[in-house]
Specification:
Largest interface: A-F, 22 and 22 residues
Oligomer: homohexamer
Structural class of chain A: alpha+beta
Number of strands of chain A: 5
Low-confidence stretches of chain A: none
Mean pLDDT of chain A: 97
Strand content of chain A: 25-35%
Distance between the termini of chain A: 22 Å
């Protein structure tokens, strides 16, 4: 009996989309105002989905407090009120698009949430744009 | 041509997380403030997802009013403004975690929504925590 | 590495549910107040989900501005502030249920978003009722 | 001790903005796509706010079930799944802008919710546009 | 230059509406299913609004972290995961309607947020029902 | 007959809270992680409220398209995808707290929306924190 439990969190960060292998005109053409050299920012909303069996002792797939603490340690404490391009190891070389941020968050959490649990991450960059990654 | 139709509903209930096979200290350690002997409560938000072919006569997978009435009969009329531990058959022995409530709701609806329809239930315990079960 | 990007949009339209092969009493019985001869309407909320690999040059699965423009051209510019039954080619013969509207939107977008991208469309008719179609 | 209680409701309707004293070109210029002769529609969201003293016997300003029933009788049963221009007395002559709909709803409710209660009505035409009227 | 700053918080609690001076039939007639002897519960959503001048040194009316901590101490730590009727001083005698809870929260915060700040409290009992109190 | 019309908009920006008259330790103590030298960011949500009489010719207080265009010109085109501290005239000297941003937006709009219209601005910095200014 496999159930999915989902937990929401959020962090607020600055970023800039930029490919250093391209010249300024190409960056501007591809990334538009997201390429602003002085950065812009977002309230990122995160949903972490963990799928597994219900533990008959607790009635839990996973203790939501444990999951919430893990999200804080691995994601929010690292990215909240940061400049993703300048302040984090992960995005010094990697372009901080929503897609790449979502994959990085999945990878950090996957290192702590092992099989047989399945893991999916949903990341809202704005209310209108969001991305999902499930490790495939 | 398989389409999924989804219908939201809600019920407000009291509950307490507790494993009667454990002593008070273990219950407190595992369930924390959710173990409060006098209960606490939630506005549960429910989404029922039914997948099947579109009926060419109606353009419906299933009449949403029929689905809404079924959710009321099988779920809301039973659980709304109730104490899940004390007032319901289903959770007299079974710990009313979001996971277990979600599975119980799926089972009640599955008895009324037959194959070839697929059924999934999403249950929000709070805005930040939710669970899903699809019968696997 | 497959990631899903999702983009929200909306359009406001009038419609009437009606099967011209049935008499008035049957239409009233099946569609109830949705059969009102003078139409009613909705704020339709749309989410378009595109799944594919991340382009290593851009960090994008698909440029969200390109996707947003495509949704405007193929969906919102055609359906917004329209009477679906009277003003659109698609629903002159086809009953404009949420299910049928969702499939039509999927088909219009599928013609523009080719393999290997996967495509799914979610359509909210109200906050409580929504449908999804992924081409299966 | 004055407290305000607020209750949400909704209705789905078709409408058209039009001033019959103007020619077609002026109507098109002023109302744009909202002037579509075949109508369009909205999911109207309504919030009714009633301000008054707390009854020491009940702890209520007003029983929310009584207020909800009154909103159904005076507003939703009249306007839900209707064409405001064609199916209602109120908007046969009066242009059904959000402003005018809000004032009409306030007037209908004011006839039933007497002094010393204060009354305010909020009406969402879309998620992005809403209006308020308090009788001043 | 007076600006209002608003901060959201939440707590989950069980309660029962009951007037001990009435017999069971009257309580049932007035409070309906909210009178259930075994309690039910809600996710209460709280918004605290503080109005005052902007401090030219900080650009703040009030530090939101200070306000958030105060709400936790005075409200959430006392009411979260509690049975309002059984576990709190405030509602042992006072019927825990949304109106009365809102006034109690306002009084607790007013003792800590002094003039010249103005204070208003909004309390959502469900998504559809909410109350407000501003001390008048 | 005075009605309030409200229009939502949004912009995404980077900022840093800092008082240049203070040393680094004081800035860190007062503004905490909001003082990060490399900036962070938010999805700002804006609601502009205009109160006035209903024009009997149009049924409008103000044409929402005119109001939406004005908000774009005066606010979103200036602040969206910008670093408020580095890229804008308004916040080169003024600390870009939510309170100060809200007042600046009100002042810019007030120059274009004249008496007898009343004007109020609501600005959400996050889902949990928002501010309002009405010119008093």
């Amino acid at each position: 009996m496999k159930v999915t439990v989902s937990r929401k969190a959020h962090f607020n960060a600055a970023h800039r989309l930029h490919n250093p292998q391209w010249d300024a005109a190409t960056n501007q053409q591809v990334f538009g105002k997201c390429n602003n050299a002085n950065f812009h920012g977002h309230n990122y909303q995160l949903i972490v989905h963990v799928t597994g069996p219900i533990d008959p002792q607790t009635g839990y797939v996973m203790d939501m407090k444990v999951l919430a603490d893990l999200i804080d340690e691995e994601v929010c404490d690292r990215f909240d009120h940061k400049n993703l391009n300048l302040d984090t190891e992960e995005f010094r070389e990697l372009n901080p698009t929503a897609e790449n941020i979502c994959v990085v968050i999945w990878q950090r959490l996957r290192a702590k949430i092992n099989n047989p649990f399945e893991l999916k991450v949903t990341l809202y960059e704005t209310e209108r744009n969001y991305v999902e990654y499930a490790g495939e």
